[in-house]
Amino acid sequence: HSSQNEEDTRWVSMFGKLPLIEPSGPAEAYSYVKEAFAMSEKFDTPVLLRMTTRVAHSKEDVETGERIEQTPAAEFTVNVPKYVMVPRNAYKRHSKVEERQRALAILSETSPLNRIERGDDRIGFITSGVSYYYIRQQFPDASILKLGFSYPFCNDKITAFAGSVKELFVIEELDPVIEEHCRSLGLTVRAKHPSFRIGELRPEYIKDIVDGKEKIEAESTARRPVLCRGCPHRFVFTVLRRTKAIVAGDIGCYTLGASPPLSALHTCVCMGAAVTFQEGFRRAMPGRKIAGVIGDSTFIHSGITGLINAVYNKANGLIIILDNSTTAMTGGQNHPATGKTITDQPTRKLVLEELCKACGVDHVDVVSPYEIKQLEALIKQRLGEDALSVIIARAPCRLIDRDSRPAPAYDKDKCKTCGICLSVDCPAIRETEGGYIEIDRATCMGCYLCAEVCPPGALSRPS
Q1: What is the pLDDT of residues 11-23, one digit of tens each?
Q2: Could you tell me the pTM of the whole model?
Q3: Distances from the Cα of 97 to the Cαs of 50, 94, 245, in angstroms?
Q4: What CA–CA distance (Å, rounded) separates 295 from 297?
Q5: What is the rounded CA–CA span in Å between residue 364 and residue 375?
């Protein structure tokens, strides 16, 4: 969902000549991992387990087995021709890879992961992944070749199945990987219209595909994602919007700063790009106000090298590290700057400000984003300087610091219905009849950003 063009990772398997396992649901994901480990050991190869969004987001009863641990522990055997990939050794290893591919292709013909389910021979489907369940729901009596071990292809099984049904369909998400391979075998297949190559398939799409229809996009009814109540990032984006700077963003929950009405983040491509995009923008558009915004966890993961590169190449600009002391978007995991391991054990803490200084940054500031006046003055100052600066906006994520303060006071008589308080995009503030507002006092965290931005003073800190 979040990659630039929904990359279909099945091509990675074919490019790398690696076996590919595709479960259709949680129970298969569990059992297929065991199969993948067994295959990896037998054939001395990495195995790709392709998980798609719907498989990962679905629930199913899973029967677990006994835990099996390797005994004795694995040992490394020195084998220079195998593990030192200089050109001469790589040439010889290529021969091994091709031998392995042939052996894996033979295995795919007999693997129980590739199974034929016989039904009505008037229509047959070749499929993989979650699409299998969609077909079962819409065409319960059809014949199906389900590819669970989908690469290398089981050519004999595919050809035999194709000859056993009167009309053959290929149903797969995203790219026409199976479809094109079937055509390369000389088979006549019907497949989805190219419009279905975008986005996930849905059960209701299957009959449309069989009927040869184009995809009709359904209007989304999903709740609009929004930063949490009291989120410290909201203060930073409120200030950046005022500066009218171009803001290079990054991967994290703070990417929500791009959504209206905040609209204060303008790029998001990959982890670490906030730092390198900022440098590129500055070089391409000298004189423009440009900032890069990156989270603490993402900065450690992918931003440090970009910062070193900026220092080395004498780049100027402003990088803002949104330090909320956790990896918030994916569940609140620890990272090196939290001082705790992933299992919550104490460890040596990475101090971000010292790291940035060691990289050679000209100015390193640490500020609480809740001190919005100080934050705004500092951002404006650093944006206007001919230097490379890092501002660390440090305040804990509200999911790990749930302490709240009383909601702001609201004087309706002072309210000018200007809507500025609504522009901070806080879900605890609702617009009512006539443009006035109402505060959900049960969920308000008491960050008082709305009071800080209210020109007539209709919102204020409680006395």
Answers
A1: 999 999 999 999 9
A2: 0.88
A3: 21, 5, 51
A4: 6
A5: 13
